[in-house]
Amino acid sequence: MIEEQGKVVAIDGDYAWINTMRESACQSCSASKGCGQKMLNSVSSGRSSQVKVSRTLDVNVGDRVLVGIAEEALLKASILAYLLPLLAMIVCAGAAEAIFSFPDPVVALIGVLGLALGLILVKTLSFRLSCNPSYHPQLLRKLG
C-alpha cells in the first residue's frame, strides 16, 4: 500500500476531500535531476493536492488522516497510461513497415496514428477502471 498523510478539508456526503502534503525528498535523492516527481511538484506550484475518497471512517473537517492506494492498482494504471500507447505506436509502425513496405514518412505517420489510437484506448479503459473501487484512494486510518 502506498500511503500519504493528509488533512480533511471538506465533507461531501459519503466522500471526504483530503488535502495531501507531498513530502519532498528531492534534495537528498540521487535521481533528483531525472525524476518525474520533482517535475510534478514544480508544475503544481506547490506541495499539496486534493483527493476525493470514500468516507469509510468517521472523519471531520480538520482531522489528519492516512490515505493509500494499492501498489498493484498503481502499477496497472501506470502500465495502461504509459505502455499501451507506445505498444500501439510500435505495432502500427511495425506492421506498416513489415507487411505493407510503406516508405519511411508513411510508416512514421502510421506510427503517430497508432499512438493516437493507443491514447484513445487509454481514455476508454481508464473510464471503465474509474468505476472500480480498488483503483481509488482509500482512507486507512485517522491520525492523532
Overview of this protein structure:
The protein folds into two domains: 2-69 and 136-143, Beta Barrel (OB fold (Dihydrolipoamide Acetyltransferase, E2P)); 72-129. Helix content is 43%, strand content 26%. The protein contains three helices and five strands. A five-stranded antiparallel β-sheet has the order 3-2-1-4-5. Strand 1 (2-12) and strand 2 form a beta hairpin. Helix 2 runs antiparallel to helix 3 (104-129). The model has no long low-confidence stretch (mean pLDDT 84).
Kindly state the percentage of residues in helix. 40-55%
CATH topology of the largest domain: OB fold (Dihydrolipoamide Acetyltransferase, E2P)
Strand content: 25-35%
In the predicted model, the low-confidence regions spanning at least 5 consecutive residues are none
CATH uppermost class of the largest domain: Mainly Beta
Major pleated sheet: 5 strands, antiparallel
Oligomer: single chain
Describe the structure in brief.
This protein is an alpha+beta fold.
Write the layout of secondary structure elements.
Blueprint: E1 2-12, E2 15-21, H1 36-43, E3 48-54, E4 64-69, H2 71-98, H3 104-129, E5 138-143
Antiparallel strand pairs: 1-2, 1-4, 2-3, 4-5
Helix pairs in contact: 2-3
